[in-house]
Amino acid sequence: MSSTKQPWGNTVDVEFSDSIAFVYFNRPDKKNCMSPTLNREMYATLHALELDDRCKVVVLTGRGAAWSAGMDLKEYFRETDNESDAFKMRIREEAAAWQQIKLRNHAKPTIAMVNGWVFGGAFTPLTSCDIAIASDDATFGLSEINWGILPGGNVTKSVADTMGQRDALYYIMTGETFDGKKAAKMGLVNESVPAKQLEKRVRELAKVLMEKDPIVLRSAKEVFKRVRYMDWETANDYIYAKSDGSQKRSGGEFRNGAMKAFLDEKKLKPGLDTYKKDDGKNAIKSSKKPAGAKKSKKK
Ligand code: ACO
Ligand code: V55
Predict the structure, then answer these.
(1) Rounded to the nearest whole angstrom, what is the distance from the C-alpha of residue 69 to the centroid of ligand 1?
(2) Label partner for 274 (CA 20 to 30 A): which of 51, 208, 262, 293?
(3) For the residues 248-259, what does the mean pLDDT come to?
(4) Whether pLDDT at 280 is above 50
């Protein structure tokens, strides 16, 4: 792994490995809570990675015992209480800029690799990641109510987007914690795995995502995030526009190659395998055979 401090700063670190950028909340002695400085450094980091060829997938994780213990109660809240209104609005904007805009709409696929504590404000970047895999022993909590605030910073919206009403209100109102397994059961994360398997599972998933047409993949996630708030007909038009646009921008090589491999060469079953862009003549052999799948007939 190669590592460099630029332009990540001190509160964020990045390691590149197998075309994955592991982006770390890097304040382990403060349980990776989010200060105004961290918010600015995260924005700069994620922004830079969009144009960095060493990064095909972003994995957001935490150094030490925490993923992130939420907003920094000292630097983000108490130390700004006596600042001007304009200053307070600015630090809120800087939190939202990376948590809700840059990360949520990131050019690359994003995976939250949840290794430990996740409290309050950390639910927003968690939900902004496209996919989330947690360690069974990770601990989540909407702790706001435990210290007298309601879940702001769009935490409430993040929770409404990923959890059902019964679970969301239960945890918003009690402030109780829950573990990775429970988070997976509720749909807050995709899966939870034993701590020892967390990185392996995330790397496996990143590899799957890397094999797709990156331009189409980017549009696919953008489309999903937009259409859920659209009416039916606007969504249909928008999806066609994004579909045509992404094919034009990608050049359609992946799509045409895959159709050739399936329809003419009978070498690919796109229902079961991904076409490999780098190898126009071939597709990966299916590793697992779903029930009912037949071997392709030789003509
Ligand atoms: N804000 C500011 N400092 C924090 C935060 C935070 N959110 N979380 C941890 N820290 C600091 C602690 O103050 C402590 O600092 P110190 O060493 O200078 O005294 C250091 O990180 C280590 O934390 P401990 O509490 O000593 O660690 P412990 O393992 O005992 O507990 C835990 C970990 C459970 C995460 C605890 O730190 C905690 O409850 N943190 C707050 C979680 C929270 O409620 N976050 C806010 C959510 S609401 C929102 O984000 C808007
Ligand atoms: C929270 C988070 C915020 C905020 C206010 O409840 C509250 C968490 C991400 O910013 O500004």
Answers:
(1) 6
(2) 51
(3) 96
(4) no
Q: Which residues contact 259 (CB under 8 A, 6 or more apart)?
A: none
Distances (CA, A) of 298 to 247, 264, 265, 276, 293: 32, 12, 11, 22, 15
The residue contributing the CA closest to ligand 2 atom 2 is 153
Q: Is the CB of 144 under 6 A from ligand 1?
A: yes
93 Cα–ligand 2 center, Å: 11
Number of H helices, E strands in the chain: 10, 11
Contact 135, 194 (CB under 8 A): yes
Which H or E run includes 216? helix 214-227
Q: CATH code for 12-210?
A: 3.90.226.10
CA of 94 to the centre of ligand 2 (A): 11
Ligand 1 atom closest to 70 (CA): 50
Question: Residue 73: nearest ligand to its CA?
Answer: 1
Residues 156 and 124 sit within 8 Å (Cβ to Cβ): no
Residue nearest atom 13 of ligand 1, based on CA coordinates: 30
Atom of ligand 2 nearest to the CA of 96: 9
Question: What are the domain boundaries of the chain?
Answer: 12-210, 214-295
Query: Structure pTM?
Result: 0.93
Q: Residue 288: its pLDDT value, please? A: 45
Six-digit token pair at 222?
């953008």
- Which pLDDT score is estimated for 7? 78
Ligand 1 pocket member 76 (CB < 6 A): no
Q: For residue 278, what pLDDT is reported?
A: 59
For 118-147, the DSSP string reads EEGGGHHHHHHSSEEEEETT-EEE-GGGGG
